[in-house]
Amino acid sequence: MNDKFEHKFAIKRILKETDSGYHQAIRIYNETTPVEIKTNTNEIVHWLNKEGHFKTMVFVLYFDEEVIGFSMIGYVLAKK
Questions:
Q1: Is 4 part of a structural domain of the chain?
Q2: Average pLDDT per consecutive 10 residues, the chain (80 residues; last block may be shorter)
Q3: Which of 10, 23, 39, 52 places its Cα 20 to 30 Å from the Cα of 1?
Q4: 1 lies in a domain?
Q5: Which helix (H) or strand (E) holds 68?
Q6: Range of 54's domain?
Q7: Looking at the DSSP assignment, which residues form a beta bridge with residue 70?
Q8: Based on the structure, what is the number of domains in the chain?
């Protein structure tokens, strides 16, 4: 008898909105994030493609090869 449970967690960085998993993850984001704090998905795509002093990074979260979430972070590249 095997008493061991195994699961695979993964995170994948999204570089463009056509990357696999993005649309599933953004659907989860839209369904679970309260409207008061939700960023418009068109703005997310805009910041994903924008270059400048502010960098946005978008990730898809996986559990056992299934998309389970969305994550987005941003940081300032340079400051004065």
A1: no
A2: 89 94 96 94 88 87 97 84
A3: 10
A4: no
A5: strand 66-76
A6: 9-76
A7: 60
A8: 1
